[in-house]
């Protein structure tokens, strides 16, 4: 039996910690599978890097997860999904391997939440520049008008656990005001970065009543469950003994300390070199 035919863990990749907010929801909904999480903390942030750089970094990490036995990898990172997923799917996938992202499953269901068809996107500069959400949402729902705003200070605030600081209050309020000024009829805001759910109490504090704020984790988890149900040939290649492994390309002790904020429980990670 070749490596691509042998059942293996589901790989979850992110540029750092944010993907853990998605992984938490996936594991909650689908606890029976084996999982390997890889955070490329040594090279974070991805949000300000070029398309080519994000593609190369993401491809290295995806193939490292393939080497560890994963047949299915989820890019739990909006920037990697925006800048690398399509190219990897079209050019690089070995036979029997699959890579999925977080933008498509979120875009598919955003119409559930809006009645005015005016949707705001809060994301990193890289995701905004890619225009991926505008294209995907308009592909599924041409009637929806999308307004984007980049929040460059939010990821550093989250990663430094400044979730209730004066700076966090200032930037969250400022960025929300700028996004909402684009349309008086906006009734839905999508948090299109996996770090942003940790700022949800502040975001809701400064969001007017009647506007829904959507986090991606549960939407991506539901989409993955549906995908596995519709693709038994992929599901059969996912091993099931409820094991969790965590890897980082940087310091495991630092990763362990910060990861708990995102994953909701203590974890133990190991160092993994992905750079060639």
In short:
This protein is of the alpha/beta class and 276 residues long.
What's the topology here?
Blueprint: E1 10-14, H1 19-29, E2 35-39, H2 51-67, E3 72-75, H3 78-83, H4 85-92, E4 98-100, H5 103-109, E5 118-123, H6 125-130, H7 132-140, E6 145-150, H8 154-159, H9 166-180, E7 188-191, H10 200-205, E8 212-214, H11 217-230, H12 232-235, E9 244-248, H13 252-263, E10 269-271
Parallel strand pairs: 1-2, 1-3, 2-9, 3-4, 5-6, 5-7, 7-8, 9-10
Helix pairs in contact: 1-11, 5-7
Characterise this structure.
The radius of gyration is 18 Å and the shape is globular. Helix 1 crosses helix 11 and helix 5 crosses helix 7. The chain is built from 13 helices and 10 strands. The longest helix has 17 residues, at 51-67. The protein has 276 residues and is α/β, with parallel strands linked by helices. Strand 9 (244-248), helix 13 and strand 10 (269-271) form a beta-alpha-beta unit. The chain starts with 9 loop residues before the first strand and ends in a 5-residue tail after the last strand. The strands form 2 sheets. It has a 6-stranded parallel sheet, sandwiched between helices. A 4-stranded parallel sheet has the order 6-5-7-8, sandwiched between helices.
**Average pLDDT number:** 95
Residue share in helix:
40-55%
* Main beta-sheet annotation: 6 strands, parallel
Number of beta strands = 10
Instruction: Please compute the radius of gyration using only Cα atoms.
Output: 18 Å
Structure annotation, total helices: 13
Molecular shape? globular
Low-confidence stretches: none
Estimated share of beta-strand residues = 15-25%
List the strand order in the largest sheet: 4-3-1-2-9-10
What is the distance, rounded to the nearest whole angstrom, between the alpha carbons of the first and last residues?
Answer: 28 Å
Q: What structural category do the secondary elements indicate? A: alpha/beta
* H/E topology pattern: EHEHEHHEHEHHEHHEHEHHEHE
């Amino acid at each position: 039996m070749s490596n691509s035919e042998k059942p293996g863990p589901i790989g979850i990749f992110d540029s750092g910690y944010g993907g853990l907010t998605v992984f938490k929801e996936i594991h909650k909904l689908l606890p029976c599978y084996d999982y390997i999480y890889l955070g490329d903390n040594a090279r974070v942030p991805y949000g300000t890097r070029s398309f080519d750089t994000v593609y190369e970094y993401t491809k290295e990490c995806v193939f490292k997860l393939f080497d560890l036995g994963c047949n299915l990898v989820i890019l739990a990172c909006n920037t990697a999904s925006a800048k690398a997923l399509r190219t990897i799917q079209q050019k690089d996938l070995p036979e029997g391997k699959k890579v999925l992202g977080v933008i498509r499953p979120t875009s598919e269901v955003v119409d559930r939440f809006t009645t005015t068809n005016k949707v705001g996107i809060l994301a990193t500069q890289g995701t905004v520049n890619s225009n991926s959400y505008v294209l995907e949402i308009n592909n599924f729902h041409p009637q929806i008008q999308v307004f984007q705003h980049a929040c460059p200070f939010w990821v550093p605030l989250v990663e430094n656990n400044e979730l209730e600081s004066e700076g966090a209050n200032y930037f969250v309020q400022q960025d929300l005001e700028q996004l909402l000024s684009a349309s008086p009829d906006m009734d839905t805001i999508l948090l299109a970065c996996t770090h942003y759910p940790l700022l949800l109490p502040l975001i809701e504090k400064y969001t007017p009543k009647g506007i829904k704020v959507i986090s991606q984790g549960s939407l991506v988890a539901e989409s993955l469950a549906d995908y596995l149900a519709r693709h038994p040939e992929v599901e059969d290649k996912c091993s099931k003994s409820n094991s969790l492994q965590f890897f980082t390309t940087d310091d495991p002790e630092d990763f362990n300390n910060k990861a708990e904020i995102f994953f909701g429980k203590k974890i133990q990670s190991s160092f993994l070199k992905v750079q060639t």
